[in-house]
Every structure is written in C-alpha cells, then in structure tokens.
Design brief:
By secondary structure, this protein is an alpha+beta fold. It has one domain. The protein has 6 helices and 7 strands; from the N terminus they run ααβββααββββαα. It has a 4-stranded antiparallel sheet, covered by helices on one side. Strands 4-6-7 form a 3-stranded antiparallel sheet. β1 (50-58) and β2 form a beta hairpin.
Length: 194
C-alpha cells in the first residue's frame, strides 16, 4: 500500500510540474516569430498601413465578441492580418501573389460586379456589407469581404487592385510561399447569374 501511495504522489507531483511549465512558458509569442499576429500588425503599420479592428454586425447591431483585425493601405486595400504572415501561406495570399488581372482587359462579370464574380470564381464566399446591415462594418463605407476556405480574407475590390498591380507596395508585403494550387482562369466565359 505504501508503494502505491508513493507512486500516486510522485505521479501527481510530475503532473503538477507539467501544468506549471505549461502555464509559465510562453507559446508562440516571441517578437521575431513570423506567425505572431503582433508581427503581422507591425508589418502593416511600419509600411504605411493602419490596423482596423472590425466587428461583425447583423441587422445594424454589433455581434458581441466577434471582431477581426485587418490592415488597410491607402483606403483602397484591406486585407486580413493573416495574409501578411511571412511563413504560413493562405489562400488569400496565394491569390494575391499568383492571380493576374489585366488592367485593360475587362473581367467577365455576369452579376455586374467584377469583384464579386472573381471572389466566387476563386471559390470564396462574399460578405457584402452596405450601411452596416450585416458582415464586417467599416464606418462610412461598404466592404465586400471575400472569405476563403482556410479563413483568410480580404476585401474583394482589394483583390482586384492587388492582382492588377494597382497597389504594388501592399502586394510586396505578402511574402509567404504561395500554395501549390491551380489558379482558375477568371477570363473564362461563365453563365449569367440569375
């Protein structure tokens, strides 16, 4: 019986040390860690961008606790901070790096909104927010957020600016290795949306 008690207390003592070590050793917070959101925010602000903490809204009301940080460049380009990760590629970063949009060749837009159609062609989903009815609210403007399957996101119009070369300074900040995926042909004929 004594040996069992000693084994129990030794196991409990080891477990306590593991818990203490887990609580006091910082996780993923080193200043030079490229996957630290603080590094992404610094990349944004040190290159002329500003951080936007946007809240989700539904029917003109903020949904408590659901905010996300974005980087805004020149009031034209808004990207999720995760797109600025230097080491972890995202779908949004890959499309910004690999998609080419001609500044002079019109994009087929069955819906009448090229940004919307490009987002859908890239298998993104759109969260269109006009007058803060739903989606991410941007004071004084409309934001059409394109959200990809990995959770990365950027304003759909920003994707067009970046892919067409209209925002070369912002595009240069997206440096992760692109994902090995096939980029859809956005100039292919598509049926009209009904």
């Amino acid at each position: 019986m004594i040996n069992n008690n000693r084994l129990f207390y030794n196991s409990l003592s080891c477990l306590a040390w593991v818990i203490v070590a887990f609580l006091i050793i910082p996780k993923n917070v080193y200043a030079d860690n490229p996957d630290n959101p603080a590094v992404w925010a610094n990349t944004c602000t040190s290159n002329g961008g500003k951080i936007l903490s946007l809240a989700i809204q539904f029917d003109h009301q903020k949904v408590s606790g659901l905010t996300r940080d974005f980087c805004e460049f020149n009031s034209n380009t808004i990207v999720g901070l995760e797109v600025l990760s230097k080491s972890t590629p995202t779908l949004a970063a890959t499309f910004v790096q690999e998609l080419y949009i001609s500044p002079i060749k019109p994009i087929p837009a069955p819906s009448g909104n090229p940004a919307y159609d490009v987002c859908l062609e890239l298998s993104g989903t759109m969260s269109i927010n006009n007058d803060a009815t739903s989606g991410y609210y941007v004071p004084g403007g409309q934001m059409s957020m394109c959200v990809f399957g990995d959770g990365s996101m950027l304003d759909a119009q920003s994707l067009l600016y970046l892919a067409s070369g209209s925002e070369p300074d912002a595009k240069a900040l997206i440096t992760s290795t692109p994902l090995p995926i096939v980029i859809p042909d956005i100039y292919a004929k598509r049926p009209a949306i009904e």
